[in-house]
Amino acid sequence: MVLSTIVGFPLALWTWKCVMLVLFQRKIIYMGYAPPGARQETLDPSAPELKSLDVEQFEIPSTDGVKVQALWVSRSQQAHTKPNDDPGVVMVYLQGNAGNPLARLPVFSSLLSSPLTPSSTRILAPAPRSYWRSTSRRPTQRGLLSDYASALHHAQTRFPRSPVVLYGHSLGGSAAVLLALGEEARDVGGVVLENPFASIGDMVRALYSHWAMPYRYLAPLAFDTWDALGAAQSLETLPPRTQWLVLLSEGDELVPRVQGEALGQALREAARGRARGKEGEEGEEEEEEGRVRSVVVPRALHETAWKSPVWAREVGGFLGRVESERRAGQEDARREGRGGS
Prior knowledge:
This protein has 10 helices and 8 strands. By secondary structure, it is α/β, with parallel strands linked by helices. The chain has an 8-stranded mixed beta sheet, sandwiched between helices. Helix 5 links the parallel strand 5 and strand 6. It is globular.
């Protein structure tokens, strides 16, 4: 009796915890309720970041009757020479698994104040279902991707002549990969991945790394896999004309850096595949592989890369390159049109 109690009680407790982890896993993955008050927070006109920013709050219709609350963010109109023109580049920001777009205003302010960032850059920051003031619906991978696809469509419809860059942080990084490689995305000029993870299964195994930790074996029971690495590895070629930047915090305490490195390597392999498909063009493989860059942000943690001058330099320069490439492509198209007429 004593022996059965000693063995049976811990086993029953462990089994109960495993069942709870599986049943309520989406409460752990999608933390729109954190920090406390994140769902009810409102835009504060006195926030210091707003002194240099123009911020517009609005909503985007998505699937399942969801209304996605979002922010348009740009430099103050005083910094614009032609505020009514299409922006040089539009960045769609896909957040991590907690908080809301308001919490990212310091990030946006830092980026838009960088001299390397095109001055007319606009940032679209959507809050998917169950986040901030968006419609309360059970968050799922399919649902979040649908909301982000609606936001991407909104950006491309509002500014059809501007290149669009997807920027994803953490969970948003996996979403950016799946969105950019999916059928919903069209004509995405660039993708920035900040501390992305490979998949939910890889994160579970990383958190419970020792073989004797029983929870690591629950990974196959994930309802939403967010398998960005698998999607990248299954590619034969990368989408044409899309540039990629993978930013990895040196001291990331949440997502092992090796996961982002593996994702960057998979994207470079796909870039080589695209180059191999182009016969007779010398240096094509090196050129295509150069469209995928990985950069380690020194002394940065999972949430603090944006405070580093390396981050501002890399992201601002990346946006500038995307803008320049689109402008060059539009000029080539105009010349070809004049030549054919």
